[in-house]
Amino acid sequence: MKLVIGNKNYSSWSLRPWLFMAYHQLDFEEIRLAMFEPAWEEQIQQYSPSGFVPVLDDQGLIIWDSIAICEYLSEQYLQDKGWPQDIKTRARARACAAEMHAGFSQIRTAMPMNVRAENRRIEITPAIRKEIARIDTQWNSLRAEFREQGEWLFGEFTILDCMYAPMVFRFNTYGINLTQAAEEYRQFVLAHPLMQDWIQASRLETETFERSETGLK
Ligand SMILES: N[C@@H](CCC(=O)N[C@@H](CS)C(=O)NCC(=O)O)C(=O)O
What we know:
Layout: E1 2-5, H1 12-23, E2 29-32, H2 40-47, E3 55-58, E4 61-63, H3 66-77, H4 87-102, H5 105-110, H6 126-146, H7 159-173, H8 180-191, H9 193-204
């Protein structure tokens, strides 16, 4: 399998399936493209019908959306381990993942993922505060409910943790602290060896997206 991703420092969607595949030790070749560089348009057209990363190529089967990639891999190679096994719990995990996939636009706009950047500060508007509070509440209540089963949101590692992994980097870059169990979860994910690997790789990248370099003091 090939997983085509963008710049590790900036491509939040790329992180999600990469983390899922790396965590489950699936055998894949990582193809990193430098987004928006002169060769980008031509390179991405070779792999992705949508022109976006990430994209998975599994022996000619092309899947071009982060959550669809994770779900396919879960069904095809992991006996559905990507989601909680209980049907009702799975439905709730999917609702959370869909909320992340389609939502939190205020945070995403004001706080671009910029993995290697630290101590950035932005103005926390009421709309941004509301979205952060929603995530804080959701993480706290999931951790309270599934604490006995493990350290991830639903106890065991699921696709939902991958969906939220870029949010962990955003909160780190822009100094957003959460409350109680949500904060513990944030720190647990940030310290995970695979997240640390991703940070190290981001630091080695040389490209800079000016529009994502926000929040400088
Ligand atoms: N819904 C897509 C979104 C993918 C996406 O927005 N990718 C961005 C990078 S993080 C991209 O490829 N941008 C290229 C462009 O804007 O030309 C997914 O979940 O995979």
